Structure formats: C-alpha cells, structure tokens
Amino acid sequence: MATYSLKETKQPPKSQTKAVLWLKDNLFSSVTNASLTFIALYIIYLLLPPILNWTIFDANFDLTADNDSCGREGACWSFINANFKMFIYGFYPQEELWRVNTMFGIIAALVALGSLLKGSQYRAHFIIGSFLIYPVVAFVLLYGGLGLEIVETDKWGGLTLTVVVAAVGIIASFPLGILFALGRQSEMRVVKFISVVYIEFVRGVPLITILFMASVVLPLFFSAGMDFDKLLRALIGITLFQTAYIAEVIRGGLQAIPKGQYEAADAAGLSFMQKTMLVILPQALKISIPNIVGSFIALFKDTTLLLIIGLFDMLAIVGAATSNSNWLGRDTEGYVFVAMVIWVILYSMSRYSKRLEVRFSTEHK
Amino acid sequence: MFTKLKSLLYNNEVRAILFQILAVVVIAYFAYQAFDNMMLNIEQRGIRSGFGFLNDEAGFAVNDNFFLEYSPASTNLQAFYVGIVNTLIVAITGIFFASVLGLIVGISRLSSNYLIRKMATVYIEVFRNIPILLQILFWYSMALSAFPSPKNSISFFDSIFLNSRGLYLPRPVEGVEIYLVLASFIIGVVSYIFIKRRSNKKHDDTGIETNTTPYFAGLVLLLPIAVYFASGAQLEYPVLKGFNFRGGVDLSIEFFALAFALSIYTATYIAEAIRSGIESVDNGQKEAAAAMGLTQTQSLRLVVLPQALRVAIPPIINQYLNLTKNSSLAAAVGYTELVTIFSGTVLNVVGQAIEIIILTMLVYLAISLVISLILNIFNKKMQIKGK
User: What pLDDT is stored for residue B386 in this prediction?
Assistant: First the structure.
C-alpha cells in the first residue's frame, strides 16, 4: 500500500507577506500610483524637516531662557512659558486667578456630574438647571460683586475671554434663533418677512462689519447716559450674528419633521404653543443638534475676530506679548501655540459632532 | 356681544393679525427710539450726517491699486470703488486657487494611494480647525520674516520678483497692441468653444470622437502669443529703484498673505464638498464605467465628476461666498480692500459710522445676492437636466 505523506507547507512568497503586500496594494499598485507615492514623499521631504527642526531639533526648550539667549534658529518655547498666564487669563489680576479657575472647575464638575446622571430621569432637569444657574455664578465669579472684588471687563482676556464669548454667544443666540426659525416658518406674512430679512441680511455680511456696527454704531442708538461696556457691545454683535445662523440650523430641523406630526398635533386639539413646545420643537431640536455643534465650532473660530475691535482674545495676546520689548519677534511661537490650543479644542468638538451625527442619524436603521 | 368678541379673540386668523400688528408696533417703537437717540447723539457729538462726505477729498494713499485712477487727492467715493475692486480681486484670486487646490485634495482623499489619502486628510483636518484670522496673521508674519529684502529678491527669469514687500509682475504697456492681443485671445476662446460644441454634437450624433486639444493649444494659447510677438506689444518690467521695485504690477505682501491664507483655508471645505460629491455617486456608475472599458481617469473625468459636481457645486458656491466675506479680515493685516479702506481709514477720518458701515454692508449684501442668484440658476438648471 502506498503511503502518502503531506508535503511540507511552503512559506508564502516574499511578495505576499503582510508588509510587502500592503506596500504593493497601497503604494505601488501601478506606475501612476508609484509616481504619486514619490510625489507625496517628496512633498513630505520638503515640508517636514523644516517644521520639525524649528519646533523640536533647533528649538530651545530651556524654560528659563530669555529672548536673547534663546537663539533664532528654532522656536523659543520659554516665550510661551513666560506668557502662559496671559494666554489663558489675559490681564486678570494675579491674586484673583482662582476665580477663573473655579469657573472652569465648575464646568468640569458639571460635565462630570452630567455624565454620571446618564440614564437618570433627573438628567434633563440637571442640564436645564445648570444652563440657567451656571451663567449667573460664572458672571459673579468673573466680574465680581457679592463680596468679590470687581474686575473690569477690559482686564479679561486670553482663552478665558474666548470661552466666555463663545459660551454667551451660543446660550443667548439659542432662544433667539428658535424664535427666528419659527418666525421664518410662520404663516403670518409680516413675521415671516421680518425673520427672512433679518436672517438673510446677517448671513449676507461678514461678521467683522457686524462687530464694527456693534462697537461703533450701537452706542449711538441709546441715550447718552448709557455707557456701554466694550465687551458687552461685542457680545451683542456676536449674539445677533449667531442668532441668524442658529435660526437657519433649526429651520433645517423644522423642515425635516414630517407634515403628519403637525397635522396629528392639530387633530389632537393642541394649541399652537402646545404643538410647538411639545411636539415640533423637541423633535426638530434633536435633529439639529449635530448642526448646532457645527455652528458652535464656527462661532468659536469667529471669536478670534474680537482682536480687530480691540479685545484681547487668545490670538490678540500674541500681539500683546510680543510688543513687550523682552519678547520682540516671537510672533511665530505665539501663533503656533494658539493654533495648537484652538486646534485641539475645535478638533475634539468636530469629532464630537461627527459622533452625534451618527447617533442621531435616522437613516438606514 | 361679549361672547362674540371672545370668539373673535380666539379666532386664529384674527389673532394672527393682532399679533402681527403688535410686532410691527413694537419694532417701530424701538426703531423710532433708536433713531431719535441717534439724531440726538449725532448732534451732540457734532457728527455730520448724509452722504456728502463721499465727495470730499480722501487724503490718504492706497497700497494696492490695480486699474482705477486713485491718488490722495481723489474723493472718498473713488476710495470706496478702489476698495470694492480690491475686495473682488482678492476674492477671485482666492476662489481660483482654493478651487484648484480643493479639487486636487478632494480627489486625493479618495485615492487608492495610502500616502496621498492620509496627506489629504491631515491637510484638511489641520487647516480646517484653525481660525482663518490666525492663519492670515501667521502667513503674514511668515512672509515678512521668511522672504528676502527687496535687494535680495527671489527672481524668476528676471521679470517676476518676490520679496518681503510683495510680488512684482511685468505689466503690458497700454496701447493698441495690447488690445489686439486681448481681442485675439477672446476670438481664440470663442472659436474654441464653437469647435468644442461642434465636436460634442458630432460625438452625440455619430459617436465619433475628435481630439480638440490641438485646437485648444492653437487658438487659446498660440494665437494670442503669436499676435503678441507680431504686434510688438511691450511689457513693462519691474525694476529695482532705491529701496523697492518700480513699474509692473505690484501685489503687496498683505495681498499675498491674505490670498494664500484664504485659499488654503477654503480649499479644505471645497475638498470636503468634492469628496462628499464623489461619494454620493452610486458605486454602480463606477462599475458600469469600468465594465465599458473606460480607464480610471476616463471614468473619473467622464462619469464620476460630472455627477459628483452636481452635488458638490452648491456647497462650493457657498464657500466662495464665505471666502469673499472672510476677505474682510484683511483689516487685520492692512491689505487695502473695502473694510480696511472704508470702515477703517475713511471712518477714522470722517467719523460717520452709520453711513459708512451701511455702505460697506450693502456691498457685501449685493455680492451675496449675486452669488445666491447664481446658485439658484445652477440648481434650476440641474433640476431640469436631472430626474
């Protein structure tokens, strides 16, 4: 009887092992593909070394170095270290910094509590309550009063100011935006007309013209006795601007609601208020959440424009810090640092909005 | 009587009318109050009102001026026009480069090449999430420090110069010759479009394809060049005189930084629009194209892109509008466009904030109206062609 023995299994050919195969499939699958790879490598070769040299290899990481001892070949990171407080708190008085920290700390605590309450029936109450109470607390902490020393708003600046403006902008524009969105969908001609004109006007002009309007023209509209805080004027401008965008986002949500929902609410005998508050808005707002986050991201980016009307947001701090004769010519370090901070914030927000989009997506379920 | 009134009050239509009257009254009241205060304030501060200031002498010089007659002796109105033209020029430049870059990056994001795909993604994620104003300031400071002084300008063929003051290009000397060149270019383009249409029609009717590339090269490129040399048109070259270049077209470094930042930033959005446009094309379309034996490039050019652009173009046009609005950030670096000239310098001199800012806003409103008109026309056209 013949015996058959199994042949020893061969190793796959070299060209089919994992790494080589991957290279072949992804980088060198054809002549065009291979030449694209080389073009890409060349671009990386052009861009990466100077960037790395400047930020790391030629940079001076000695955090106590001053401007002269730093050298000019690479970045001088002690500039950031020396001005770090200014980047975060602006010109807020040193001994009062704990107030800003407490404000940020409470936000973190609220967010943590909110996620602990996930699934609890009180979560909605908690969130709405925080949105109502927290701004007051934050205002007292930042501005003063109730026994705290008053810190005028021209001392506010840096990341703190950016966060304050973005937060006020989104919170104040939200109810207004809902009103204008409902107005635009309304059957009342006059209301609709006013809403459309407002929304389209604001969306048609650059934010900077609205900020100019708010900072130069707005004071003229009020009687002479009323003295307007510069920050307040900017906040009014930002809110007016953001309202139009939020209104459009929510209108998108309103339009996505099937007509049957309106008709069912009418058939059930609900009044206009009941219909809007109990049936339409809860659904419309839920659909709009990812886009609202998107609009918030845009607002956060736009807060940098405050520097043009003379407020010291994080970006303006770069100018302020480098105009100090100790740190002349370190703009690039400042811009790179601010860009990195804002980038991290914006990138995580945009990731978050992508996740929300998936979560709230009603397609292909 | 009372019940009748009550039922009238609960009538939806009556309520709507009452509510609208109320809204109008409230708005009118606030508008009146604001107007009243404004008049009072203006009087108290001794600010003039009205648009008479437009005819006053401007009294300031403008860095970038391309076609218009302008000198410090010109009126504010002329400065206003220079501002509008400069806004449009930087917007058009930005739109052109952003579109080209956006198209390349958008397609690269879907490339089968891992490295290209990742690079496109990194580029988009990095530049999309940095505020445009920061980018403008960054590139401006980079250009100021990285470009050489006028004496050591980077020169291309001794006719284009780049230094820390700006970019200097040769300019055609005005005369009959240059109009001849321009006319021949227009004739070339028109006749090329004519030939292209005929060849398309022939292709539709008979399926025979004609290669129109030689016509393109001949009519659009070679003809104007030939006329240029034949007519003896002259170019005025920038020449280093004293501390800087004179003559030719001079694009300030502010313009350069602004246009660069706007292009880089907006290109990320255009790339995303193009990517989602391409992804919206059904896979069957690509498979059908492949099954018919089209190469990948042909499939992309003839099958995928035309359909993808239909989805991608509305958001892209919106981005064009955003770019135009963002060009107002020139105020931060001092490129002399509408906001810098008008809401900046003129406002400082004249002090008539209301008139000046309203005029500025109207220009942007007009631009956005025109752009949304184009968008609507495009959408209509696409709808008819579509399903």
Answer: 46
Q: Which CATH number fits the domain that encloses residue A258?
A: 1.10.3720.10
Portion 109-168 of B in contact with A at CB < 8 A: 111-116, 119, 125-126, 128-134, 137-138, 141-142, 145
A358, with CB counted inside 10 A (0-12, 13-18, 19+), is: exposed
**CATH number of the domain located at residue range(s) B76-166+245-385 in this protein:** 1.10.3720.10
Is A64 contained in some domain? Answer: no
Residue whose pair of structure tokens reads 């184009």 in the numeric block: B374
Q: Name the domain count of chain A.
A: 2
How many other CB atoms are there within 10 angstroms of residue B25's CB atom? 10
Question: CB-CB: which of B112, B133, B145 is closest to A304?
Answer: B133
Distances from the Cα of A301 to the Cαs of A293, B129, B137, B361, in angstroms? 12, 8, 14, 21
Q: How confident is the model at residue B227 (pLDDT cuts 50, 70, 90)?
A: confident
Q: Is B19 on the interface with A (CB under 8 A)?
A: yes
In angstroms, what separates the C-alpha of B295 from chain A's closest C-alpha?
12
A135, A164: one domain: no
- My answer on whether A217 and A145 are in the same domain is no
- Contact across the interface for B112 and A29, Cβ inside 8 Å: yes
| Residue B127 binned pLDDT confidence (cut-offs 50, 70, 90) | very high
**Cβ neighbours of A315 in B, within 8 Å:** 131, 133-134, 137
Q: Which residue of chain B comes nearest to A333, CA vs CA?
A: B138
**Same-domain check for residues A168 and A114:** no
Residues of A in contact with B360 (CB under 8 A): 209, 212
Please report the pLDDT score of residue A226 as a whole number.
Answer: 65
The predicted model gives B193-215 an average pLDDT of: 84
Q: Is B25 on the interface with A (CB under 8 A)?
A: no
CB B248 within 8 A of CB B170: yes
A51 in Cβ contact with B137 (< 8 Å): no
- In the prediction, which pLDDT does B346 show? 86
CB within 8 Å of chain B, chain A residues 259-278: 272
> Domains of chain B: which residue ranges?
2-46, 76-166+245-385, 174-233
Give B147-189 pLDDT, tens digit per residue: 877 777 777 777 788 887 888 887 777 777 778 888 888 888 8
Q: How far is CA A73 from CA A339, B22, B162, in A?
A: 21, 67, 23
Q: Same domain, yes or no, for A161 and A249?
A: yes
Query: How far B134 CA lies from chain A's nearest CA (Å)?
Result: 7
Q: Residues B9-41: pLDDT tens digits?
A: 777 778 888 888 888 899 899 888 888 888 887
**Position with higher pLDDT, B235 vs B296:** B296
Q: How many helical (H) and strand (E) elements, i.e. helices and strands, does chain B have?
A: 15, 8
C-alpha separations of A119 from A115, A123, A124, A125 in Å: 9, 7, 10, 12
A313: containing domain:
157-358
What's the whole-model pTM score? 0.86
